[in-house]
Amino acid sequence: MQFSEFGLDPRLNKTIQHLGFSEATEIQARAIPAAMAGKDLLASSKTGSGKTLAYLLPAMQRMLKTRALSKRDARCLILTPTRELAKQVFAQLRLLIANTQTRACLITGGENFNDQSKLLRKEPQIIVATPGRLADHLSKRHLFLDGLELLILDEADRMLDLGFAEQLNSVDQAASHRKRQTLMFSATLDDAAINSFALKLLNEPERIAVGFSFTQHQDIQQQFLLSDHLDHKQQQLSEILKQDSLKQAIVFTATRADTERLAQLFSEQGLRCSALSADLSQGARNKIMDEFSRGQQKVLFTTDLASRGLDIVQVSHVINFDMPKHVEEYVHRIGRTGRAGNQGQAYSLVGPKDWFSFKNLEALLEQKIQFISLDGLEAKFKGLANKKHKPSLGKQAPKRKAKTASKHQQKPAVKTNKTFVVGKDMGDAPIKRQKKVDNLSDLDNSED
C-alpha cells in the first residue's frame, strides 16, 4: 500500500516523499487507517517493522486536521520505556513537524527538571516522555492532561516489566477524557499482564498482530557458538570483531561491570569502543550514543538498556556475549541490526551459564538450533543435560534404613496413632480401665 493512498495531509506526504518512503510496511498499512478512523488499537509487530511511523502519522494527521479539545493541554502524549527510545521517537517526530506549526517537547529522566517545566509551560501539543519523569511533572502540576486526545504507549510490555504500572495508571486517570483515543503497541498480545492492562486503558480496541514476534528475521543471519568459559568467549568475540564485513557492532552483556571491562580490554587492542550502562549520567549516555550514531565509535558494549529503540543503519553486527535472561529480549537485541533492508549478522555465545536460557529460546522458536565454530576456537563444552528431579534420596539412604530396621528388630516398638484425624473406630480399639476412687469414704476405708 502506498502512503499516498492514506489520505494524509499534503504536508505529511511531502515530508514522507522527502524521507524516501513510498510503500508502507504491513503494520503501517493496517494500523494507520484504523488509528485515523479513531479506533483504539492493541498492536504488535516484529522489531524494525516501522511501527513508530505507524502511530506518528495518525497523530500528526489529527494535529493538522482536527480542532483541539483544549487550547492549553497537550493533545498527544507518547510514552516509551527508555530514554533512548524516547529520543529516537522524538527525532522522527521532529522530521514530521518541520514544515508545520505543531509544537513538541521531549521529557525524560536524567535531564534538568526545572528546564523541562519551562518547556511544558510553552504548551506543547505533543509530548514524548518516559513514564517516571512525566508522572513527576504531573504530581507537581506542571502539566494537565484533561484535554488529552491521543495516548500512545510504545512497547507497553517493557514499561510493565520495568515497574511503571503505577505511573501509567496515574497518566490514565489524569487523561480520563471520554473522547480520548489510545494506541498500545507491545511485543506480544498473548501476555496476561498486557491483556489485563489493555482492558483498563482501551475501549473496544482493534487487535493487530503482524507476524509472530519470534519469527526468523529475513535480513538477519543468526549464528550460535558454544563457549567453554569467560576467556574463551573473549577470544571468540575478538575473532568476530575482526571480520571485514563489520561496520559497527553492539555487544550485549549480562552485567554493567562487564560492559566497562570489555570496552577497556578491546580499546587496549586498538578498537574504538564505548560502554553504555544505567550507572552513567544522562549527559554521559547522550554523548556515548551521539558518538556511536555518528560512527566515531566502532563497538558499543551495553546491557539490555540499548536492546530497544536504537535505529542505527550502520550496525552490521550484534553479539550476545551473554544470553538474555528473558527470551523476548533476544529478539529486540538482534533487531538492532538488519534495519532498513540492510543485511545483519547476529552472533550468540553460549556457555554453561547460558545453556538453559538458550534452551528456552530454542523451545520458543520451535526449531533445533545448530552451532557453528571458529577455526582454532572450537569448544569442548557440548551442552548440559536436562535437570531431572528424582524422588531418590541418594546412595546413603538404604544404609540408614537398614540400621534403623536392625534396631527395631532388637527392641520392637509399638506404634500408636494419637491423632483424631486418622484412627480406628472406638469399637475396635482396646480400652484399659484404671481403678478410680469413687468417693472420700472409700478412700478412708482403704487407708484403714
From TrEMBL:
Biased composition (Basic residues): 386-410
Superkingdom, taxonomy of origin: Bacteria
Gene3D superfamilies: P-loop containing nucleotide triphosphate hydrolases
InterPro entries in alphabetical order: DEAD/DEAH_box_helicase_dom (IPR011545), DEAD/DEAH_RhlB (IPR044742), DEAD_box_RNA_helicase (IPR050079), Helicase_ATP-bd (IPR014001), Helicase_C-like (IPR001650), P-loop_NTPase (IPR027417), RNA-helicase_DEAD-box_CS (IPR000629), RNA_helicase_DEAD_Q_motif (IPR014014)
Biased composition (Basic and acidic residues): 425-439
Domain DEAD-box RNA helicase Q as annotated: residue spans: 1-29
Extent of motif Q motif: 1-29
One Pfam family linked to the record: Helicase_C
Keywords from the named record: ATP-binding, Helicase, Hydrolase, Nucleotide-binding
Molecular-function GO term, any one: helicase activity
Keyword Transferase appears in the UniProt entry: no
Location of region: Disordered: 386-448
Helicase C-terminal domain sequence ranges: 233-385
Ranges where the Helicase ATP-binding domain occurs: 32-207
Family of the protein in this entry: Belongs to the DEAD box helicase family.
Name of the protein in question: RNA helicase
Species of provenance: Agarivorans gilvus
